[in-house]
Amino acid sequence: MRKFEGDKLLVATHNQGKLEEIANLFQPFGIAVLSAKDMGLPEPAETESTFIGNARIKAHAAALADIEAQLKRLLGKQFVVDTPFERLQHYPRYLKAIVVRLDKLKANPARDAQLMAEYGPLWTNYERRAIQLAKMGTVDPQIEQFRWLLEELRVGLYAQELRTPVPVSVKRLQKQWEGIQFG
Fold first, then answer.
1. Among candidates 126, 21, 22, which has minimal Cα distance to 73?
2. Within-domain flag for 3
3. pTM assigned to the model
4. Residue 141 falls within a domain, yes or no?
5. What digits encode the pLDDT tens for the residues 147-161?
6. Do the domain assignments include residue 17?
7. CA atoms within 13 A on the CB side of 60
8. Residue 1 domain flag
9. Among 152, 84, 82, which Cα is nearest to 122's?
10. Which end of the chain has fewer surrounding CB within 10 Å, N or C?
């Protein structure tokens, strides 16, 4: 039996009633419950005959949607021009990490969902701030650096064996975000 060690749980549902019921069950344990909708994930058709089968379908769909969004961000129309050379050098590792993640997803979709739940709030914070800055026509080097640390975090979470050039973890980045936000 696997032990749940996180403080966030991604529930692959768009059903608000189901989400509230599950959130109430986990609340006494200090576990926050996020929905697929909270993460901007699609809701695939439940075509399996068992709960576990449908959960696997949803976990795979969520991971694939996340990977697709990551690839769109990394490989925009002018990514070679828009991406600093120092970051382009890391692209082969980022892409390899996606392949490793897909391989691991087959064996343990629940772990992938847990890691997405940990990563998601950090990305959301960054994205909101980046959108605000873009609307103001401003660039903040700290925010840009944070964006690339998030990419390194993906490597660290999903393909740790590929290593990162700097130490990254969810807790480190949460602390760094607090420094950016309030510093």
1. 126
2. no
3. 0.77
4. yes
5. 999 999 999 999 999
6. yes
7. 13
8. no
9. 152
10. N
